[in-house]
Write a structure and sequence with these properties.
Number of helices: 9
Radius of gyration: 17 Å
CATH superfamily: Hypothetical protein af1432
Order of helices and strands: HHHHHHHHEEHEE
Shape: globular
CATH architecture: Orthogonal Bundle
Number of domains: 1
Number of strands: 4
Distance between the termini: 43 Å
Strand content: 5-15%
Helix content: 40-55%
CATH topology: Hypothetical protein af1432
Length: 221
């Protein structure tokens, strides 16, 4: 069995094609950016979470791989993209002769990352959820016409700064946001992201840490 690395995955033309096509599909549907930029950011954040919490380098690498692959199912359909993506990842990683135990860890993480159907089932899965759901930033909004923004565009665009802080000593992960209240209110933020924040809290619980949301220097969760 091969020790597949994050570099192998990130440089794989087949994988990058699926990410690209999935992002194009979501652009047509009016969704925020789900390109290689989002995939790489989620991958790096997921690995950093586990690294700071003392997990092995291989688990961090698996979290990176799961993070980069997590949205490839969008190339098929947004609905059930987590499960579709898990099956696609299984086929790709099997062809690469990856260890079945590692494949199982990655596909379970991908298959459980969406808030409508999933939950944390392993440290890799929990890190993926936290990394994915905390990637809130203005640059993910494609629509540049403020007058045509729907609530999703408005809430994402209102986030001027976003930072994930992992405090290993106090065992907590903090999502720190700076929100332009002239564009979106905190109520609107919670209307859109409440289920995601609850999923983050459960994922943090799985890692035996606390999840906190700080918006405009005020602790919200």
């Amino acid at each position: 069995m091969e020790k597949i690395t994050y570099t192998d995955i990130k440089n794989n033309p087949e994988i990058n094609t699926y990410i690209k096509k999935g992002d194009e599909l979501l652009e047509i549907m009016g969704y925020t950016d789900h390109s290689e930029i989002h995939a790489a950011k989620v991958a790096e954040t997921a690995a950093e979470i586990l690294r700071k919490l003392g997990y092995s380098e291989r688990e961090c690498e698996l979290a990176k791989i799961a993070g980069y692959l997590h949205d490839i199912g969008n190339a098929v359909n947004r609905v059930d993209h987590a499960q579709t993506g898990a099956v696609m990842a299984f086929n790709i990683l099997s062809k690469l002769n990856m260890d079945p135990e590692e494949i199982a860890t990655i596909v379970a993480a991908i298959g459980n990352h969406d808030e409508s159907t999933g939950t944390a089932v392993s440290p890799v899965s929990a890190a993926l959820i936290l990394a994915d759901k905390t990637d809130v930033r203005r640059s993910r909004v494609r629509n540049k016409e403020l007058v045509t923004f729907d609530i999703h565009d408005r809430v994402n665009y209102a986030v001027e700064k976003s930072k994930v802080i992992i405090d290993e000593e106090k065992r907590k992960l903090i999502l720190e946001l700076t929100i332009d209240m002239r564009i979106s209110s905190l109520i609107e933020y919670f209307e859109i992201f409440l289920t995601r924040m609850l999923m983050c809290r459960r994922a943090a619980d799985f890692l035996n840490i606390n999840f906190e949301l700080v918006a405009n220097e005020k602790k919200m969760v």
